[in-house]
Design a protein that fits this description.
With 392 residues, this protein is an alpha/beta fold. Helix content is 32%, strand content 23%. The strands form four sheets. Strands 1, 2, 3, 4, 5, 6, 7, 8, 9 and 10 form a ten-stranded mixed sheet that branches. Helix 9 runs antiparallel to helix 10. The longest helix is centred in the middle third of the chain and has 18 residues. Pathway: Carbohydrate biosynthesis; gluconeogenesis.
């Protein structure tokens, strides 16, 4: 049931999340209905402070357990004082045993509108039956001083994002809901442990489709952006499972039109960037080599483990080991492509990837040993011992 209603079940569920319904609760309103309630399309902003607890995440600052508890209490008290509460249910990943259901509880319709445009649709029943759903609290109208009051300083006066991995909770204050990229990155970090525990691989890849072939692509972000128009989704993040591969977030109107769950990849392609030309333009990798190069994430002299620059709550080594297992079990071929020397990375790169899949590509062999030594030096400095089967 949608709209305003006093469901004992919903009210009880909200009470279990610390929110008491003062007057009305509106659940799963359509965009047109949210506009009628006063929702506005916020200007896309970025750079809001992101605070995460549970473990250290790259690109985030920590928030202590007492601070998060205090913030949660202030936010739930604030939402409970608002006459109209908005609830929206959705999911990271569509229609899969590996996806993660999410419930947003908000004091205003604008944050719900922004949220509903990025997550997949799901049923309220799916939320209630999920053993580990994520909860998102959005407090658009909370006092600007809340950040300072819990000891996070005044930098977040206009808004900030706070997450607790252990509690599967995300809090968005002020206008930070307009930071779509920050919201997505934090949602991914929250959902990764759940996806992994359910047998899926949360991977920072993109999807290319050539006819009936689905390609899982890993590449440096600047290269990705140059060919973004050819990708299924511009957002980094897919879930790979025995059911197939799917993007984390919605893209376009894909809830009703077009596919949202793709078959298993025909191949995975790792894009590196090597000025020295010691890495061939295209070569075939064994599952162990693919896992090794995935773990290193080589980008023209620099290394980005698992090609992931944003926050992550999964050890890249564990992810690489699981990827190697899937490649072996599903017999998915893997390729390494060197993007250096391609003048216009976009269409030319996509053409190179497509031709790589259709040609008899030789096994990977670097020219000279210096690049191998650099890989080994980087990985041995981060990991005491690599699993059996990993190889350059």
């Amino acid at each position: 049931m949608k709209g305003s209603w006093r469901s004992h079940g919903l009210n009880s569920a909200l009470a279990g999340k610390g929110v008491l319904v003062l007057d009305q609760v509106f659940q799963n309103l359509k965009s047109s209905e949210l506009f009628q309630k006063g929702a506005t399309v916020a200007e896309l902003l970025s750079g809001f402070p992101i605070h995460v607890r549970g473990h250290t995440l790259r690109g985030s600052s920590d928030i202590s357990k007492p601070q998060f508890t205090k913030l949660l209490k202030q936010v739930t008290s604030h939402i409970s004082s608002i006459s109209n509460i908005y609830v929206h249910d959705g999911a990271i990943g569509p229609r899969s045993t590996c996806n993660v259901n999410i419930r947003m509880i908000s004091d205003g319709p604008s944050s719900v509108l922004a949220f509903s445009n990025i997550i997949w649709e799901t049923s309220s029943r799916a939320i209630s039956k999920d053993s580990c759903p994520l909860t998102v609290y959005a407090a658009e109208s909370i006092s600007p001083g809340v950040s300072n009051s819990i000891g996070l300083g005044t930098e977040g006066d206009n808004g900030f994002i706070a997450a607790d991995i252990e509690r599967s909770m995300l809090i968005v204050c002020g206008t930070a809901f307009s930071d779509i990229n920050g919201t997505k990155e934090t949602l991914v970090a929250l959902s990764e442990p759940v996806i992994f525990a359910r047998g899926g691989l949360p991977l920072p890849g993109r999807l290319l489709v050539f006819g009936d072939s689905v390609v899982l692509l890993f590449a440096p972000e600047d290269i990705i952006q140059s060919c973004a128009v050819f990708l299924i989704s511009r957002d980094a993040g897919v879930i790979l499972s025995s059911e197939g591969v799917m993007p984390f977030f919605r893209f376009g109107d894909t809830n009703t039109n077009g596919p949202n769950l793709y078959k298993l990849p025909s191949a995975i392609v790792l894009i590196t960037s090597d000025d020295s030309r010691t890495i061939p333009s295209a070569s075939k990798l064994s599952p162990g080599q693919a896992a090794y190069h995935f773990l290193a994430g080589h980008q023209n002299g620099k290394f980005v483990p698992a090609f992931h620059k944003g926050p992550s709550s999964i050890d890249p080594l564990e992810l690489a080991k699981a990827l190697m297992f899937v490649l072996k079990e599903q017999q998915i071929p893997s390729f390494l492509v060197n993007a250096k020397g391609i003048e216009s990375a976009g269409k030319e790169l996509v053409t190179l990837v497509e031709s790589t899949l259709s040609m008899n590509i030789p096994p990977f062999r670097a020219k000279g040993g210096e690049i191998k030594r650099r890989y080994k030096s980087f990985l041995s400095g981060k990991y005491q011992q690599l699993p059996e089967g990993f190889s350059f």
